[in-house]
Amino acid sequence: MEIALSPLEFGRRARRLYGDRVAVVDGERKDRGGYSVYCSRVFIGADSVIGSVHRKLVPTYEERLAWAAGDGHGLQVHPVGSFTVGGLNCFENWMPLSRAALYAQGEDLHVALWPGNLRNTEDITRFIAKEGRCFTISVSAMMHREDFPASTPHLDKILPTCPEVLANGGSCIAAPDGEWLLPPQVGKEGLFVATLDQRQVRRERQIMDPAGHYARPDVTRLVVNRERQSIISYED
């Protein structure tokens, strides 16, 4: 039996089991003005309240045919237990200034959301962990030929040239020293669990804290515009 839960309901049930140690980072498309859609990362806290919605800053390649460019409003972090959690969508994890915006807010647990495939997660997960001296979780999907809904437009033209596996997963967890806590899980679907020790962040940041003692704001600084972008503003 398969049971589908909304992110809000998942958050409620998880809170009953684990208290304030659980939050949900989920993706959805969010509209503005009625017709444009955005690739969005939604943070839902253990209290089932939406903490922030981050719209992907730059849709990648063919995504631009469907999704509009986002803004900095959702470049926010949130407390989860003893951790400060932030996250980015897909290729914006490769954007150094976006990562820096989260590090500067105290991020010590980074969640990278991916559409799927080891090639996306294998290198960047350990890189972010070592750069930010933070735990990094890459959440990556799987997709097979049979996962296409029967109502997919032009499905008869897609399937003849479609590989059996379109996305092979690759979800993984790296520690602040870049070592694997959970190596990339290829071709596997499941619930993967690891124990994160916040003290390990402190140990690594004694050596190098990218937004603290190893930063030089007198030399280089980052300016972040967190206003929700719109073509209209009101003066009533």
**N-end to C-end Cα span:** 54 Å
What is the CA-based Rg, rounded? 19 Å
User: What is the general shape?
Assistant: globular
The major pleated sheet works out as: 7 strands, mixed
**H/E element string?**
HEEEEEHEHEEHEEH
Features of the shown structure:
three-stranded antiparallel beta sheet; 5 helices; globular; disordered N terminus; seven-stranded mixed beta sheet; 236 residues
Task: Give an account of the 3D structure.
With 236 residues, the protein is an alpha+beta fold. 21% of the residues lie in helices and 28% in strands. The chain is built from five helices and ten strands; from the N terminus they run H-E-E-E-E-E-H-E-H-E-E-H-E-E-H. The strands form two sheets. Strands 4, 5, 6, 7, 8, 9 and 10 form a seven-stranded mixed sheet that branches. A three-stranded antiparallel sheet has the order 1-2-3. Strand 9 (165-174) and strand 10 (180-186) form a beta hairpin. The protein starts with 6 loop residues before the first helix and ends in a 29-residue tail after the last helix. Mean pLDDT is 88; it is low at 1-8.
Topology:
Elements: H1 7-18, E1 24-32, E2 36-44, E3 50-55, E4 78-80, E5 83-89, H2 96-103, E6 109-114, H3 118-132, E7 135-140, E8 142-144, H4 155-158, E9 165-174, E10 180-186, H5 198-207
Parallel strand pairs: 5-6, 6-7
Antiparallel strand pairs: 1-2, 2-3, 4-5, 7-9, 8-9, 9-10
